[in-house]
Amino acid sequence: MKSLNCLKVLRVLLAILFFIPLSLFFILPSNNLPIHWHIMGQIQLLPAILNGIWIWVIILFIITLLFGRIYCSVLCPAGVLQDIINRLFCIGKKKKKGSHRFRYHKAHNWLRYILLVLTGGLALFGFMELCTLLDPYSNFGRIAANLFRPVTFWFNNILAGILNKSGNYTLIHTSIQTVTIISTITAGVALVVFIAMVIMRGRLFCNTLCPVGALLSLVSRYSFFRIAISGDRCSRCKACVQTCKAEAICTDNMSIDMSRCVGCFNCISSCRKGAIQYIDRRKRILPVTSEPPTHSMVMNVWHPVGMRHISTATDTGRRSFIATSAAIATTLPVAILNAKQQHDHTRPNNGRGIHRRFGRQQLQHGSHDENYQGPVTPPGSLSLTHFKEKCTACHLCVTRCPSNVLRPAGFEYGFGYLLKPYMSFMNSFCNYACTVCTEVCPTGAIQRVTEEEKKTIQVGIARLHLNLCIVHSEETSCGACSEHCTTQAVHMVPYKGTLTIPQIEPDLCIGCGGCESICPVITPHRAIIVVPNQVHLIAQLPPEEEKIEVKIDGFGF
């Protein structure tokens, strides 16, 4: 009879603890959740490496060295999503067709390590295309942002319509302007790949295509705590083999490939003989066959001699693991927050910290090219080159942007910028003092800035096409662009008779897009548009209006 698997229960609880908040952070509207939930994205391995949060990277490797690849079953949202897909597929199916459908396969080491080398090598030279396509966190982010989020909003609008008819206005209708055709297609392809691989081979994606899984496998093969099989108790029923999502258990020679084991502990639950335990590798382990283990295969067999002693030690190891895991779970937010604070303390909080961190010359040098037709990258991204080298297109900044000015790119800026966010001023603009995208970016593609810094970062400069302006073409008054300019960079000057026409002060313009978004001209393009800077510059602060003291006698009217 099967006993309660405390390790599996703990793993599931921890996975829920991390998966649900991160999913909600991608799915729900931007003003419904605390901004500090962005930490859930920064605990992912690849974003932590790109962002230079080396303290957390070291912690993840230590956890993997101690307990194996529990990261893949607890912290990785794509891994948890694959477990959910597997669970849904097993509903209503018999054991042999549902949960008991896996079998042992040899590792595709040549494929996963070649992809790891290619992904890492290209990333070192600034080519992030493979990282964008293969990173599990970024794939989950695009699935959540472009598939789950629209479905959630659709259900919300249906319920809102029903409640509003009865006089209940708890829910309101919401719309999504940031989902594009190409982002939906790529997210759908990623989800289909996950579903197909899970149905056919369980965690095949994690052990073949995923660069994070390949990197952690180099450490997990030497983990201190690992799954072990008792050759004396094992009846070779293959129940553990049929439930192993990583397909890493071979009962023929009593071996377990710890480089592929993701620490789900399903094998322990499936064994009715108690032949599989999670023990310290330093315990007495003896092979039962003369066949030597392969490079990626570890012979995890505990000898029947001294079974009572080893079983007691195993229980102690299990309790130690549970206690340690619980301690890690309770201290993770604090440890991550401390690491993040230490990372942020390198930035002086004096309104000009970005100049000291990245060099004022990096932000100011370089001329504005009016013929440049590239994307307008978000404030804090420093330059097009920096943004392309760091961004993995997880779309977290897209979903959290309060003004919905960020949109995923298609092929209009080339394959190297595919799916990466850019600022689209067709229907919205960047709020003057908003720094949300700089706070939530997990990879460091958008560096964190203060509100004062944000007000002077020039991502582009407005340019007026006089022949399209209705003041010139139709000789009618407008001034909408001037009214919506927060920095006074666009102001009206005398034109003909009583008419006034826009004039731009480039030194004051920050490229927020307020003028472009409100311009009534539609075709062939707006009369005033923002021309992006390849390297972000520093604009001047708008002059303060002179305060006039007015003395009022009596009531003032």
Question: How would you characterize this protein structure?
Answer:
The chain is mainly alpha-helical and 557 residues long. Helix content is 44%, strand content 9%. The chain has 24 helices and 11 strands. The strands form 5 sheets. A 3-stranded mixed sheet has the order 4-1-5. A two-stranded antiparallel ribbon has the order 2-3. The chain has a two-stranded antiparallel sheet with strand order 6-7. β2 (249-250) and β3 (255-256) form a beta hairpin. α1 (6-27) runs parallel beside α15 and α6 (77-90) packs across α10 (181-201). The longest helix is centred in the middle third of the chain and has 38 residues, at 307-344. The model is unreliable at 284-296, 303-318, 320-353 and 355-366 (pLDDT under 50).
Features:
single chain, 557 residues, mainly alpha, 3-stranded mixed beta sheet, two-stranded antiparallel ribbon, 9% strand, elongated
**Residue share in helix:** 40-55%
What's the alpha carbon Rg, rounded to whole Å?
Answer: 29 Å
Q: What is the general shape?
A: elongated
Estimated structural class: mainly alpha
Q: Kindly report the average pLDDT value.
A: 83
The major pleated sheet works out as: 3 strands, mixed
C-alpha end-to-end distance: 90 Å
Summarize the structure.
The protein has 557 residues and is mainly alpha-helical. Helices cover 44% and strands 9% of the residues.
